[in-house]
């Protein structure tokens, strides 16, 4: 197809693509080929993908085209292609978690979310880049090179799921899946002008998601519109008996909530401004866009009040004890014995199992992963477990209580998604603590297990996107979607279109 036709196709929302597919105006094969063409053009500049599964995607597209031709009933997103964060297991497609220790591993099974995508007739374009084992906030810690922000290739796309966010932001994919442990879907969403959702913990199966921190990890959607996120979350959500933490109830009605929100009537909704996530520490441009968005919520009839979550100031500290502790436990399985990399001791060093494990881990794990394993091992060690890990879990309980109390007063909570816009490569690499502080607004939702969504709120003075975050009560993900869709519609009116219209896209020939 010609360049203009391709560009018109890839810039549609996933919902629009699905409508055109079902109406017979476009085939799934055409959608796949259009995105593969953009991937070929964009990847030298973006590096969002670790593996492009072109043959698999085309085969899956042809299969769903045949189902449509036969008049079979189709899922809401049938025919629409998707990219997958390489933290999620895909049968027959290399899965590495962006680590040398898993290089070359071809999983013999699919994650539950992948099974659901296949059942829905959604072709898989490939696996996206991330910080190794999802440990980072910039995608600078991948063993396979940085992913660049499509808005400015000298800046990070956020992390750990920068590959998924950059792929969607650069029109290489209309949809992607990510994993969110402390903001790894929402913060890249804020940095790349995309929509990122962390569902309620247990609302989407984690079976087949490579574990980083099991009590915090959650698979969720990466999209360009709120409605697309609702459609994708309904597709992958619901109970899974293979996941012991899966909530035994169906996915809530998020699509209808998003459609209701597009009417832009928030009368009767009470919105809480989180006192502890405003003002100091947030860039002026971020705060300005956030305050303007709050004014839009008020204009649509929402009542806005300030709410305090007093223990939120301890969230970062608690997270950076709990998370590395669980990392230390989960990554112990990568020992060179059963799968993945194996490095034998050099000549002169006894060829024992312990030495083989040591040399394998030294070669296979990157610096950030080693740092977190060491932190977690220390926190779990004899004499320190109660003082560190035990205390952090008590703080977590207090934060959960803060959220519960807040939701007795308001329907949703709001804050900026990140304190700043995307920073330049290398700017925070030498200062891990500064990098960690960038997650201050996203971490609390993971500690509490509550759902949260980040949507674009415009551009800061530096021309980079700003994210606006909604947080809802546990198991009430649908509550996120109405105000998020309403605000999205209001801001698009204000900007005369979506935020991506201001992005320079040389890979599209524009």
TrEMBL record:
<comment type="subunit">
    <text>Heterotrimer of A, B and C subunits.</text>
</comment>
<dbReference type="GO" id="GO:0050567">
    <property type="term" value="F:glutaminyl-tRNA synthase (glutamine-hydrolyzing) activity"/>
</dbReference>
<dbReference type="InterPro" id="IPR000120">
    <property type="entry name" value="Amidase"/>
</dbReference>
<comment type="function">
    <text>Allows the formation of correctly charged Gln-tRNA(Gln) through the transamidation of misacylated Glu-tRNA(Gln) in organisms which lack glutaminyl-tRNA synthetase. The reaction takes place in the presence of glutamine and ATP through an activated gamma-phospho-Glu-tRNA(Gln).</text>
</comment>
<keyword id="KW-0547">Nucleotide-binding</keyword>
<dbReference type="GO" id="GO:0006412">
    <property type="term" value="P:translation"/>
</dbReference>
<feature type="compositionally biased region" description="Polar residues">
    <location>
        <begin position="138"/>
        <end position="151"/>
    </location>
</feature>
<keyword id="KW-0808">Transferase</keyword>
<feature type="active site" description="Acyl-ester intermediate">
    <location>
        <position position="184"/>
    </location>
</feature>
<dbReference type="GO" id="GO:0005524">
    <property type="term" value="F:ATP binding"/>
</dbReference>
<comment type="similarity">
    <text>Belongs to the amidase family. GatA subfamily.</text>
</comment>
<keyword id="KW-0436">Ligase</keyword>
<dbReference type="GO" id="GO:0016740">
    <property type="term" value="F:transferase activity"/>
</dbReference>
<dbReference type="InterPro" id="IPR004412">
    <property type="entry name" value="GatA"/>
</dbReference>
<dbReference type="InterPro" id="IPR023631">
    <property type="entry name" value="Amidase_dom"/>
</dbReference>
<dbReference type="Pfam" id="PF01425">
    <property type="entry name" value="Amidase"/>
</dbReference>
<feature type="active site" description="Charge relay system">
    <location>
        <position position="160"/>
    </location>
</feature>
<feature type="active site" description="Charge relay system">
    <location>
        <position position="85"/>
    </location>
</feature>
<dbReference type="GO" id="GO:0030956">
    <property type="term" value="C:glutamyl-tRNA(Gln) amidotransferase complex"/>
</dbReference>
<protein>
    <recommendedName>
        <fullName>Glutamyl-tRNA(Gln) amidotransferase subunit A</fullName>
        <ecNumber>6.3.5.7</ecNumber>
    </recommendedName>
</protein>
<keyword id="KW-0648">Protein biosynthesis</keyword>
<dbReference type="InterPro" id="IPR036928">
    <property type="entry name" value="AS_sf"/>
</dbReference>
<feature type="domain" description="Amidase">
    <location>
        <begin position="30"/>
        <end position="479"/>
    </location>
</feature>
<keyword id="KW-0067">ATP-binding</keyword>
<dbReference type="InterPro" id="IPR020556">
    <property type="entry name" value="Amidase_CS"/>
</dbReference>
<feature type="region of interest" description="Disordered">
    <location>
        <begin position="138"/>
        <end position="164"/>
    </location>
</feature>
